[in-house]
Amino acid sequence: MARKGQRTGIFDLEDVTEAIQLPSFEGTFKEEDMILITPPKLMIDVVELHEGKKGVEINSALLIVKEQMRLSGVRKATISEYIYTFKRLVDAMKIEYVDDIKLESIFGWLASLGDISDVSKQSRLRVIKAVLNRLYDNGWIERNFWKDVRIRVDTKIKLPADEKQLSILLSLLDMANFIPFRDAVAVLTIYKTGIRMNTLIQLEEKHIDFKTNSLLLTGDIMKNHDVLKLPFDDELALYLKRLITQNNIIRKHYKKRNEVVFLSKFGDSLDVETKPCAITKRLSYYAKKYKLNNISAHAIRRLYATNLRKKGADVVLISKALSHKSLSTTTRYLGISSDDVLKGLRDYL
């Protein structure tokens, strides 16, 4: 039942009163549970691109690159970040043509960023390299001179969410009110399946198979555009069904037509490119309100990976479950240190 001052009716879940409790991690994974398919790359004709006296104009080139990225299925937010960052380089170094981009341009721009951390510089350099690779692939740059430009940083091991703190959070959420209930189900979904937040907010009813208790994730909602199948248990199935039931009530009230599983309070999708994800902001709000540490979608996803490892899953299988492109990313998620490597290798001597 809603508290005093809160909206009632469509937001009340009268039959849900008990908080979600996290049991010891359950669930088994088999190799056949996951199918990874890489979609074909889409190409765009760049022959008719307008060239100035000094070669290809940078603004025209970026328009083509932007369209190529869109056709390749890159997310709008990622495209916007790449183009925005590269244009900062272009403006700062006064670049008009693709041929104007030199090694000195990159170093000059990085120096102009001022006193920011090496991690931030590394992140921006990664974006610049990604766009330059596109320009190179299109034949507008003869040599990929930027490939050896690196910023060395100490890799910090990011810790997974603490299971006890996550349990405390779930015990404090008002399960009789739609928004906290939705957030609790979101936390439980990431905890039990390890999916990314961006995939979660695009999840539709067609992606859930309650007959086999599986998520059937299509490439269009995945970061790496790979198809992925993930199992979940009966507890999560129960909460997802209840959430879908409440979603139908809210959609009917606001006359919305969609099949999104995690909705806004007005029945709309949470996948809004121009704004931070509502559930991400809510998790941050809960963490500050209840003074909880390391409560975020990434931290919960790391906890999922850590639990899989504790259950005996190998790194390759965990990497597939997390839809990582490289094992190095997975080892960072798992926080495998040099001491862990030393200890593990001794068993094979």
Automatic annotation (TrEMBL):
Pfam families: Phage_integrase
One GO process term, biological-process aspect: DNA integration
Coiled coil (UniProt feature): none
Domain Tyr recombinase residue range list: 156-347
Molecular function per GO: DNA binding
Classification via InterPro entries: DNA_brk_join_enz, Integrase-like_cat_sf, Integrase_catalytic, Integrase_recombinase_N, Tyrosine_recombinase_XerCD
Record PROSITE patterns: TYR_RECOMBINASE
Keywords (A to Z) from UniProt: DNA recombination, DNA-binding
Name the UniProt record assigns to this protein: Integrase
Organism per entry: Lysinibacillus sphaericus CBAM5
